[in-house]
Design brief:
The complex is a heterodimer. Chain A is an all-alpha fold. Chain A has one domain. In chain A, 73% of the residues lie in helices and 2% in strands. Chain A is built from eleven helices and two strands. In chain A, strand 1 and strand 2 form a beta hairpin. The radius of gyration of chain A is 19 Å and the shape is globular. The mean pLDDT of chain A is 91. Chain B is of the alpha/beta class. Chain B has a domain of 131 residues: P-loop containing nucleotide triphosphate hydrolases (Rossmann fold, 3-Layer(aba) Sandwich). Helix content of chain B is 37%, strand content 26%. In chain B, strand 4 and strand 5 form a beta hairpin. In chain B, helix 3 packs parallel to helix 6. The termini of chain B are far apart. The relative contact order of chain B is 0.18. Classes of the chains: A mainly alpha, B alpha/beta. Chains A and B meet through helix 6 and helix 7 of A and helix 2 and helix 3 of B.
Chain lengths: 291, 241
């Protein structure tokens, strides 16, 4: 029983990281109808910047985290203004946007590889004693990762549903041209969205780096976020979060009780089974409701 | 050209879709307090004209002046300068509530204190919307959606309200109510209105002046009354021999 609860907590914590990534995808997808393939490079970039902050600049963890977030925002907005906006303004098909995103991904990952090398690095945080609740031990980093991720998601929800800008983004997700006719600046919306995805990918990158390792290709894990958002229902934020939690828990249970080498097998199997019975994902019943 | 007192002054406007000419040398003016209608058949360029003024479509030639200033070429800046378009087919935000739709309409407003008061004015105009305030826009009937689209545009407190085919897809009784509202907006609130409409007789009856658009060119211009009596207009657009 203790093991099960430990697995559950660990699963929710990794699920929360997937949720950050899945929400980042869903946000861009819901407004621009393209998958931001550069997202996993942003995540690796975020992890490396925090890594540099701690190991080379001797920053405390929280400061390195802020540095990482700020730099990843710059990268994300930079990609938007250099790689996506010019295409959007020329009304390019969304396939072009995706190819452009892949280009950004390749460039960023390879630059990281060139500077830091392709080796796996341990994230430089000292391991701390787990917290014991009865006989259940909970990793402190799991707890922090979970809490911060949920905190960020809650803030994002407040922003989207309680502010004027958030309403503007939701309107843009429904119909970007009519949103412009209401006086909403499409490019300003784009910048806000890419600032948000920068924050999400940096935080996810740092916590994922802590949990596993920091390496240029670490962003490959975003495939899990894709699975999670498809399982939940593509393009919807709450669905992305639910899908991520399910996937995170499933993966840790498989790793704990069966074998970690079968983990990904079960993830993809899960996707196939869900799609067999829920072709639109678990919560993807309503096509017009996006955010 | 911009020296006149007209609210909106369009001169020699040409718009192309690729190589195809949609508008050719269109000149048009809207004075403060007027209802101006543009009538014409399908494909005459009416919607293109609206989209061009709203800066959704860019133009190759000509000038558009609003309040004596060149009109901005970004869609959202056109709204900020005081022109709001009620787009063809209403285009309300279906998943958002009626209230949220109206709030999106007020997006550009810097003066946010009067928002609730302004919303109350919209509800006085369209009491049905108040009954449905928390309902999703997509669940409204066609007529209610048109009310919402007009109400949403009014929330931006425009100096010029543009309506693209306000009668499209509505039942005749709903159309009558909608046009009565348009007249009231103009007469009681002094709102300047530019509308394009396929339903020529309705548009000519309520407008002060009208233009007839044919394959991208203005072929006739006059008061609504004059055009209603013009034999060519009667034959081509009103179906009266």
């Amino acid at each position: 029983m203790e093991l099960f609860i430990q697995q559950l907590v660990s699963g929710v914590s990794i699920g929360a990281i997937y949720a950050l990534l899945a929400v980042g995808y869903a946000l861009v997808y819901s407004v621009y109808n393209f998958t931001n393939w550069a997202f996993d490079a942003f995540m690796a970039f975020g992890a490396f910047m925090a890594f540099v902050g701690i190991s080379s600049l001797f920053m405390p963890f929280w400061l390195a985290m802020i540095l990482s977030i700020l730099l990843t925002i710059l990268l994300s907005v930079g990609a938007e203004s250099m790689a996506y906006r010019p295409l959007r303004e020329r009304k390019a098909p969304r396939l072009f946007m995706m190819i452009s995103a892949m280009g950004v991904n390749l460039a960023v990952v390879n630059i990281i590889n060139l500077i830091f090398g392709g080796t796996f690095r341990k994230f430089p945080v000292e391991s701390v004693q787990p917290i014991f609740v009865g006989n259940v031990s909970i990793g402190r980093m799991d707890l922090i990762a979970g809490l911060i991720s949920f905190g960020v998601l809650a803030l994002l929800w407040l922003f989207l549903y309680r502010t004027r800008w958030g309403l503007g983004i939701r309107a843009s997700a429904i119909d970007i041209q009519t949103a412009a006719l209401m006086g909403i600046n499409n490019n300003a919306v784009a910048i806000i969205i890419f600032v948000i995805t920068g924050v999400l990918s940096a935080i996810a990158g740092v916590f994922y780096g802590i949990k596993y390792a920091v390496y240029p290709m670490m962003g490959i894990v975003t495939i899990k976020a894709m699975i999670a958002s498809i399982v939940g229902g593509l393009g919807s934020l709450p669905a992305a979060i639910v899908g991520s939690m399910l996937l995170g828990v499933l993966e840790t249970l498989v790793s704990g009780y069966i074998s970690s080498s079968y983990r990904d097998l079960f993830s993809f199997l899960f996707l196939i089974v869900i799609l067999l019975f829920f072709p639109n994902g678990l919560m993807g019943k309503n096509v017009d409701e996006k955010l | 050209m911009p020296a006149t007192s007209a609210l909106l002054e369009i001169h020699d406007l040409s718009v192309y879709y690729g190589g195809i000419r949609a508008l050719h040398g269109v000149s048009l003016r809207v004075e403060r307090g007027e209802i101006v209608a543009v009538i014409g058949a399908n494909g005459a360029g009416k919607s293109t004209l609206m989209k061009t003024i709203a800066a959704v479509k860019s133009y190759q030639n000509g000038t558009i002046f609003f309040e004596g200033q060149p009109l901005p070429k970004d869609t959202h800046k056109v709204v900020t300068s005081g022109i709001t378009l009620v787009p063809e087919g209403r285009r309300i935000f279906a998943p958002l509530s009626v209230r949220e739709n109206l709030l999106v309409g007020a997006y550009t407003r810097s003066n946010r204190q009067d928002l609730e008061k302004n919303m109350e004015e919209v509800f006085q105009l369209f009491p049905r919307l108040k009954e449905r305030i928390h309902q999703r826009g997509g669940t409204l009937s066609g007529g209610e959606q048109q009310m919402l689209a007009v109400g949403r545009a009014l929330m931006s407190q425009p100096k010029l309200l543009m309506l693209d085919e306000p009668s499209l897809g509505l039942a005749p009784i709903v159309i009558d109510a909608m046009f009565e509202t348009i007249v009231r907006l103009n007469r009681d609130l002094g709102l300047t209105i530019l509308l394009v409409e396929q339903n020529a007789s309705l548009a000519l009856e309520l407008c002060h002046r009208a233009y007839v658009l044919k394959t991208g060119e203005i072929v006739m211009e006059g008061t609504g009354k004059d055009l209603l009596e013009d034999p060519r207009v009667r034959a081509s657009y009103l179906g009266i021999k």
